[in-house]
């Protein structure tokens, strides 16, 4: 077993806008670990399709775009073909398309190994939809982060407006409900809590409270194995 295989992973899964990315970054920073925003890879694939005029229904072409993705993550920024696309991949049109392409089996297979490469010592905090069920099934701590759709829509609306995008709360709620249904019902790697995951409802929790909850669970786990 390589040192990368032994590196601990905290997997944080959950529906869109549940706060996974923010929590993952904060937990990783507190522990001094690396972070994987798996959703960014699917958003990048979606953006590549939009920029190249690839028909989302052409699964072979979409999968090829995923395999040839020229992307890198640097200091909280996301680059594709050398261009900073950090804000572009957060647009709702990209997020909705990402949910569609994520249902394509060939796309998920193309991105699977790329995600696992992020597992390096001293540890990794990975967020997504199937981190604990498919990508890192042996993660010692698996979190399923949820929040009611109204709270998630309000968060996303605020986030989009802060980034200069127009946003309509009612439309966001409708889009999220549709995306949730699509993510949960897809045949390949559906959005579901791992059998050994711990569910945290962040609807009424602040970012700090949610981060403290995850760190507390990790601390308890480490202590129990000491």
Automatic annotation (TrEMBL):
Per UniProt, residues of the Cytidylate kinase domain are: 10-216
Q: What is its main location?
A: cytoplasm
Which Pfam families does this one have?
Answer: Cytidylate_kin
Q: What is its EC number?
A: 2.7.4.25
Instruction: Please name the SUPFAM superfamilies in this protein's record.
Output: P-loop containing nucleoside triphosphate hydrolases
Q: Some GO term, biological process aspect, for this entry: which one?
A: nucleobase-containing small molecule interconversion
What would you give as a GO molecular function for this chain, any one? ATP binding
Enzyme class of the recorded protein, top EC level: transferase
Q: What is one GO cellular-component annotation here?
A: cytosol
Q: Where in the cell is it found?
A: Cytoplasm
Q: What catalytic activity is recorded?
A: CMP + ATP = CDP + ADP; dCMP + ATP = dCDP + ADP
Q: Which UniProt keywords apply?
A: ATP-binding, Cytoplasm, Kinase, Nucleotide-binding, Transferase
Q: Where does ATP bind?
A: 14-22
What domain of life does the native source organism fall in?
A: Bacteria
Signal peptide residue numbers: none
The UniProt entry, under InterPro entries, shows:
Cytidylate_kin, Cytidylate_kinase_dom, P-loop_NTPase
Q: HAMAP family per the record?
A: Cytidyl_kinase_type1 (MF_00238)
User: Into which family does the record put it?
Assistant: Belongs to the cytidylate kinase family. Type 1 subfamily.
Q: What is this protein called?
A: Cytidylate kinase
Q: Which species is the source of this protein?
A: Eoetvoesiella caeni
């Amino acid at each position: 077993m390589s040192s990368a295989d032994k590196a601990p992973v905290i997997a944080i899964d959950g529906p869109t806008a549940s706060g996974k990315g923010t929590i993952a970054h904060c937990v990783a920073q507190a522990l001094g670990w690396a972070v994987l925003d798996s959703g960014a890879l699917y958003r990048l694939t979606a953006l590549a399709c939009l920029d190249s005029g690839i028909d989302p229904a052409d699964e072979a072409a979409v999968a090829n775009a995923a395999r040839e993705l020229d992307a890198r993550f640097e200091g909280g920024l996301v680059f594709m073909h050398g261009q900073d696309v950090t804000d572009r991949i957060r647009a709702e049109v990209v997020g909705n398309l990402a949910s569609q392409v994520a249902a394509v089996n060939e796309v998920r297979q193309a991105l699977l190994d790329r995600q696992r490469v992020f597992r390096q010592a001293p540890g990794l905090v990975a967020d997504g939809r199937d981190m604990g069920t498919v990508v890192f099934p042996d993660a010692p701590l698996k979190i399923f982060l949820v929040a009611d759709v109204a709270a998630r829509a309000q968060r996303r609306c605020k986030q989009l407006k802060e980034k200069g995008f127009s946003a309509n709360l009612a439309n966001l709620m409708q889009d999220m409900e549709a995306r949730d249904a699509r993510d949960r019902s897809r045949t390949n790697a559906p959005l579901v809590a791992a059998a050994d995951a711990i569910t945290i409802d962040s609807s009424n929790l602040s970012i700090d409270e949610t981060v403290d909850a995850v760190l507390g669970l990790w601390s308890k786990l480490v202590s129990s194995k000491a």
